[in-house]
């Protein structure tokens, strides 16, 4: 598909760009393809726009306000202080004022005031309330799909208002009236039907894994296995389906396999649950999130595993860490017989779930894994903190473990590492620009412009330290940067996974 031409933002010298001069409606024209009626029905929504859409939308908003107390608080709490104005990468990249988090929220807040507050019902003009019209709904579709739900703005908001929750609510309302996005909803439908976002059936997955085993054997001389559907394995690995075939993702899958091999840990993938990603989060649909996650519980019970480990995927880890307990009973939560059976089955000595980086660093600290760090000497490495890991979850048994653990792995397997500027990493990390349902070519202009702040921070360490490799632990970040880096005159091969670095330097031995 041809991508429309647009101006790529210029990367300015450090420090980061000033607040841009606003360009009203600069990106109002950017709309991703709508979902067809068939796609919508596959995940439980109508399509196209229903006749009584106005009533359905207002009723749905009322339902969400009652269900999620946080949403009602966010609607009332904002004082328009502007602290979030320059914190959004999409505003910095596009200069469209409606990409300011406060202004994007206001698209919903003015409708909330009109229908759910006394003043808005009787004195709408005095309080900035507005009717929900088709024009307003179209603005929602434009701008709530120019938000990656990265939550950076919430870090700087004095009231802790979470724009991501507002975005998810708006998308759920739009889905309820038949205005869904093709990209997210089609992928979610594939997951429900087949078990992964790519629509990769079991036989094709098995063939892919066998091919990878042959590649590893040819490359290393060691028979490293990629097992699938092995009953009685200790570990069930749940990883993004991009790891099965896409570059550079597959290099991290090979790294996982080498870690399991060298540690002597029996493990398996599952053809039933061959996807860690859960796009139900992106559209704010608890029902679809749960439907997707239940595959993992079913696979774990069927295979009889003792541990569940999650691969390199940002939003997948957020869903696993923050929601699996209530969605499926993994961890704590749930009283049904299957939840109790799973809790009794899983080994309490390990976190449930556990991130692959947690497991790998633990093995490194135990001295189980050995590395030839010089094998990564052709790389000068930096690390990109993925939003959903940085701001939506934790890792390990210490505050900030999600920042420390990946970096400790990198330092254990490579000699040359340099962080980007402090204000662009950690909790304040800049988004890759492609998360939250925006990783579609329909929105390439938004993706490229939204990536600008991260590209600027990257350019600084390239200039100062000759960095030529940016590691990440998120499938969407890897896919986004693979496409966006060339727009900023970087080589697309600069992006890769943490376990890609592990794979390069790990010492392998024959295992029976």
From TrEMBL:
In this record, what's one Pfam family? Answer: Fer4_8
Q: Per its UniProt record, what PROSITE patterns does this chain match? A: 4FE4S_FER_1, 4FE4S_FER_2
* GO MF terms, alphabetically ordered: 4 iron, 4 sulfur cluster binding; metal ion binding
**Which keywords does this chain's UniProt record carry?**
4Fe-4S, Electron transport, Iron, Iron-sulfur, Metal-binding, Transport
Record has 4Fe-4S as a keyword: yes
4Fe-4S ferredoxin-type domain span: 69-98
Superkingdom, taxonomy of origin: Bacteria
Its protein name is: Fe-S oxidoreductase
Annotated source species: Sulfurirhabdus autotrophica
